[in-house]
Structure formats: C-alpha cells, structure tokens
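Q: Hi! Curious about what carbonic anhydrase looks like structurally. Here's the sequence.
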Amino acid sequence: MGMRYTADDFDGDSRVAPDEALRRLAEGNRIYMEALDHKRDLSPARIRELFENGQRPFATIITCADSRVVPEHAFMAGLGELFVVRVAGNVVGPVEAASAVYACAHLHTRLLLVLGHTHCGAIKAAIDGEAGAVAPVTERVAAAIAGEDDPYRASVLNTEAAIAELRAVPELAALEQAGDLRIAGAIYHTHCGVVDFL
Ligand SMILES: [Zn+2]
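A: Let's find out. The predicted structure is below.
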C-alpha cells in the first residue's frame, strides 16, 4: 500500500510535480472510498521526524471548515503531507491567499487545490442572504454563485471563484506561469465522499 512517505522520498529535488500530487490525491480518495486502509502513522517517531526534517507537504489545499470534509481523511494523507487552509465556504480573502503564498512560495508545494464541497452551509447561508457577522464569508460566496441553487453547480462556481482569487495574487500567478505551480479545483461530494477533480 503506497501511501506512506518518509524523508527518503524527498532526496534531491523534493518538490512533487502537480501531476504526481494529483495522482496521490486521487489514489488516496480511492482508498478512502474503498476503506482499504484507514491506518495512519501518527507515532511519536513520525512527529519527531517531521520536527527534525521539516515539513515537505506535497500539496496545498484550501477547503471548507465543514467537519465532514477532512482532506487528510479524504485523500488518506498523513502528518506532514498536506498544507491545509480551512475556512467556511473555502473562500479566499487576503489571509487565505497569504497562507497559500507561504505554502507555494516557501514550502514549494506545486499543487494548490481548492476543495469545495456539496451541501455547504456557507453556500446555503449565502443563498439565504444571511449577513451580519457572517457577511465576510456569505458576501464572497454570494458573488461567486450568482444565485445558483443547485448544490453541485454552486460549489463548482464557488470553487472557481476561489481559484480566480488565487490567480489574482501576483506571487501565485508568477509561479503558475513559470510552470512551478498548478492551481486546480475539486469538489467533495458530502453525501458519499467521492472527490471530483475539475
Ligand atoms: Zn462548507
């Protein structure tokens, strides 16, 4: 079962290519769906190894804070493998963009994946016009989905809007144009756990 990575996997150029990162994520989701192996190395030895060697995540993921959408589970990834930014509605504002820049420009992950999901509470709140304290999220989502109420289409539109926000960040755009980064989207189906890569 090939989902364990150690420091030995990072000899030489440690940066995992976008195609390989996507392949790992798709394979992880397949294992998640088939419940082939839900064991993870959370041992003190692994924690110490990551502390001593530093983190080398192979992908950066921006996703919703929804408790049912857990990238490390959905992609069967272990400690140190994914740099995850979680925020309601997987919206991208200045703080999320800055987090992505840190991961892509400094940790050198070469895949930046926005993982939206169906039946998202933030999208429902936006459709329902909720404002006040949740407005920083719902206003971004409302602008992204423009009235779409189909849960899958709305999550795709919201994900695409987040990708557009990321591409508007000069540091990320430069990395992508240089071929050092791919910015991509995917949708997690909340009712079954399947991830569709867009
Ligand atoms: Zn959500």
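A: A fun detail: The mean pLDDT is 91.
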